[in-house]
Amino acid sequence: MIKKVILLAAAIATSSFATWDYFSLLDGNQGSVKAGLYYDMDDDWSQMGLKVGARMNIAPKVELSIQSFGFQFWGETECDACAEGGYGLRDLIIGARYALDPELYFFLDFNLPIGRERNDGTTPPSQGEIFLYFGAQHNKAIDAMKGASYGTEAGIFWGFEHHDLERGLELHLGAEFDYKLPSAPLTLLVGTQFWLRIFESEDHDKDLRDDWSDQWKFWFGANFELNKNIALNGQIILRSQDLNHRKNNEGFREVPMEGDALGFALDMEFKF
Description:
This protein is mainly beta. It is 4% helix and 55% strand. The strands form two sheets. A twelve-stranded antiparallel barrel has the order 1-2-3-5-6-7-8-10-11-13-14-15. A two-stranded antiparallel sheet has the order 9-12. β7 and β8 form a beta hairpin. 33% of the residues are buried. The mean pLDDT is 87.
């Protein structure tokens, strides 16, 4: 049973933001491709890998994207008795956004578990989980502050059964504030995301009770435009999570590797 809990915590620790971002679609029939590195650490655990993504407007109000794909170099804990590994191909998220108006969007993300599931480390690149993430976004320029804008998101995460485990339904809320400097091609940003598991996860033993688990995620970073079509993005990401687990009426247990971490991401985006 404890292996299932660790697997669930690992899935949370490796989960990405989902959706491309909280802001507007690209103009016209424009598209973009981005690639970069990510690194996460917590105590003696760490993971690092390459992520790539692409998006394109296929209609004036419709955007399709692929996200979170790539290759994980490792995902493991440093200790004498620990297995080395956690490397391999990552899962692929296929996303779609529809603009109801210039400031309001509906989105749907679908995770295709094509990555390497073998758990020879602590966080394999794939959990073998199919999931849907859907909801709405709102973004707007702040008239009182030239160059400032915000984006918000509310969504529902629905995971399907994998490895005899089905993650409970989750509510996700997120927001980001961006400020483009008037005298430089630089945008500063700060954001947060909160999720709450509103239904318990289930397994065949029926002894996992993790409803009302939650996680806060904070990030800040910058976007530097090298020219009108190429931009460099960097972020520092902090996660703090409380993952509840109790068996029958025995009370809550401590969960190894809950999903707390400090992360770094650096990528370059090319528009075409």
